[in-house]
Amino acid sequence: MRKAHPLHLRLLWLLRDEGPLSRAELADRLQIPRPRLLAELERLVALGYVAEAGLAKSRGGRRSTLVELDPRLRFAAVDMGASSIDVEVVNGRLEPVAAYAEQADIRSGPKATLHRVNELLHKARADGAYERLDAIGVGVPGPVSFRDGVPVSPPIMPGWDRFPVRELLTREHGCPAVVDNDVNIMAIGERHGGVAHSVDDFLFVKIGTGIGCGIFLGGEVYRGSDGCAGDIGHIQAEPHGPVCSCGNVGCLEALFSGAALAKDATAAARSGTSPALAERLAARGRVTALDVAEGAGEGDVTCIQLIREGGRRLGGVLAGLVSFANPSMIVIGGGLAQLGHILLAEIRSVVYRRSLPLATGNLPVVLSELGPRAGVAGAAVLASDVAFLEAS
Amino acid sequence: MRKAHPLHLRLLWLLRDEGPLSRAELADRLQIPRPRLLAELERLVALGYVAEAGLAKSRGGRRSTLVELDPRLRFAAVDMGASSIDVEVVNGRLEPVAAYAEQADIRSGPKATLHRVNELLHKARADGAYERLDAIGVGVPGPVSFRDGVPVSPPIMPGWDRFPVRELLTREHGCPAVVDNDVNIMAIGERHGGVAHSVDDFLFVKIGTGIGCGIFLGGEVYRGSDGCAGDIGHIQAEPHGPVCSCGNVGCLEALFSGAALAKDATAAARSGTSPALAERLAARGRVTALDVAEGAGEGDVTCIQLIREGGRRLGGVLAGLVSFANPSMIVIGGGLAQLGHILLAEIRSVVYRRSLPLATGNLPVVLSELGPRAGVAGAAVLASDVAFLEAS
């Protein structure tokens, strides 16, 4: 929490992240004189952000009264994936009040998809999760102009280019909305309540159907000059590799991702080199990346080999990014994080071997702690930030 | 210039970068009330940072008096290369008052090298360039702990590891000193007075004996969590490439740098594929990267081919960094920038083809404007920053 941020934001963040506090604690933590704090609190109570929260536990002497975020604050967190929608309604402390998940194909376009999101949010209200929303945070699986609140040329989201997602949600629900890339919101979630808690410079690598990277530098999400930083799935990992869906040769994503791994697993099942995969292919007619994870767990040599090979590819790209950005942590998340410790070990081995000792001397490479909840958790953080900013 | 920076810093920066200004202009530009400005100016005059500068040109009405940086302010800028020392003494506006350049082998160790630096600075004083120095900025050709002011495990600087460069200079000259990586100071120079003027997010790629990258993000140098960000010379550019001096395989630097190009040029001269290089080898007994530049200028096909091949390698690595960091400009500097437009064209071709259209739609790839002066220019900026910070 930087001193440069406005007082009301620092105050609301404290109450969000630490819960009810006494006025004395607040003045102390924010390093401001008590009269200034009291004036600010009065303002925030009038605006409906802050409320009295009863008496603190006695520490001898007069018991002080606590303040907390207004218990009626509600934020909606929406994580749209390629084939799923996750929605949570949370209170001011970002604790879930209601949660919904369903299958949905992002390719059905913005109108149909946002209609489902709206229906889920209206259902949450009917279920008593909120009376009115204070802000909505949304993640989408593609590049976003954060400033404009619109997707920009998203490769797997036909029909969404420049669609006014933020504007539509704001109009429907009468509250501010904020739209970001799905990987950025996962990184935000992981920094707020996960393994990267309070880490200022880290990379969050999402390995799912594709591969992307959320970047935290100096305690802030770094989005790049056009908002598309972190597009690491199309970094060339092998000059003579396969042709990628983007048209280029040897992209990381074409060599290692959910889609690439499913393809390699299917080939291994058919060729008979992997009993574990052949069994699953026979039973279900298809194999996916998760079958490779299961097979590796059973000790299937080919499955282990596939994961190691993938880890080596990803590790090669990450080694370059470590040399470039010198982060202090790498977090691996997304569906394929389930490949677990075999994957981590391989990534570590390549990164530690290839990057400067100074950069890797103290560089944890770890799995996401929030797992599939990272996205909604980050969307909730973003929503609260945009709501709090309005309290100026 | 961010509003979050302290007033005295913003004021001194304005006078440094724009020269004498009237009090009215200053109050206006800094958006502060006149009494606050006058108090601050009085304080800075007493400290010896600011002085009266006579009357402004008449614009009708009463002529206002100007203030400027104290004309006695002097900063020393030192750029140590692998085989050279450049020293400039500049005034508060960073205009050179004296300049010295000489050959020096950084491998002769810190004591001998810094002894030469001190001798040059004492000579500058004897020459009348200054009475006392207000700060010294230094660049060294290796990784630096910016916070501690010491080189850290610098590969081409034997004996310099953790040597207290900053402390020694501070003690010798009785003023604050600041030590940074040579590529960072070049990037700082280029942003202050070169092609990247006022660009907030850009990469400065130095191609010399080795390859390194200075990174500006959000208007600040980004140094990474251990201060070694930008070490791109050892990113793998070719999985089956040659072994690098660092022990790894296929590093960019092993494929394209001053040293690599000299080796390829020598081979081309010996094999007879390049008349231009063969002629130079016969005349001088050796060929360097600059011979390749000259040969290309004369239309020698092999020389052009060598530059294009190098540009392709570098472009491949930069394409990955553009996907990751989404900068708004790439500046090519260092000795090999003399390879010029053939090199730029090849880099552009690879970067524009391989990175997201959103990231490359408006991404100039340009040559350094300051050329060999970029380093001292940036060291002077750093020195003034550290001196101004002390005025708090």
UniProtKB/TrEMBL annotation, chains A, B:
PROSITE patterns given in the database record: ROK
Keyword tags: Kinase, Transferase
Organism: Micromonospora pallida
Domain of life: Bacteria
Name under which the protein is recorded: ROK family protein (Putative glucokinase)
InterPro entries in alphabetical order: ArsR-like_HTH, ATPase_NBD, ROK, ROK_cs, WH-like_DNA-bd_sf, WH_DNA-bd_sf
GO MF assignments: kinase activity
Protein family (similarity comment): Belongs to the ROK (NagC/XylR) family.
Signal peptide residue numbers: none
Classification via Pfam families: HTH_24, ROK
